[in-house]
Specification:
With 212 residues, the protein is an alpha/beta fold. The chain contains seven helices and seven strands, in the order αααβαβαβαβαβββ.
Amino acid sequence: MKVREKPVEKVWQDFQQEAGLTDSQLALFRRYEELLSLRNKEFNLTAIKELSGVVRQHFIDSLALTKAFDLKTVTTVCDIGPGAGFPSLPLKIMFPHLHIILMEVTTKKRQFLQEVITMLGLEQVELYEHDWRTFIRTTATKVDLGVTRAAIADLELVKAFRPACFYRTAAMVYWAAEQWQPHKRVAPFVKRDFVYRLGHKNRRLIFFGLPD
């Protein structure tokens, strides 16, 4: 049975209330969604096309981090494989002080991300075309927090904690499904596991860091 779609304004009103958005922040999210919907027809940026799905599965899911972590305590966030900008661009809208590094290897997605950045007037947002391995091996950029919505394997993510890696002191957050289990070599780096509800399913934020 198909679930009936909420009226457009009701979707946005509910989102504003749930996320605690100001009117100006809500306006930015609306413009973001409009551009995503438009460009998705050309670039197939996301399989989710209905407004309520985009708001829940992309915007609300990205902002789940605000329930588990105080983003006022960090300056620079590196988003590994953001695709259409998730989770870091919704976090940037909520916390304008953040310096965001978007690490996206796909050209058409970088083009879309640049369009979003320009249209929304977002400052201190950088685009990198490196993959994760190249980034942690060849760069030395200040990063307080790495985030990824499971765009890479957990085993790849924790390579940042190798003794010689510049990024080994950064925290890492991994968006995971309820049934996720860490690789045996990843388990020692799991610092915290935060469970949250998204629609009818439980999701998890896995916080990685150096073992004590």
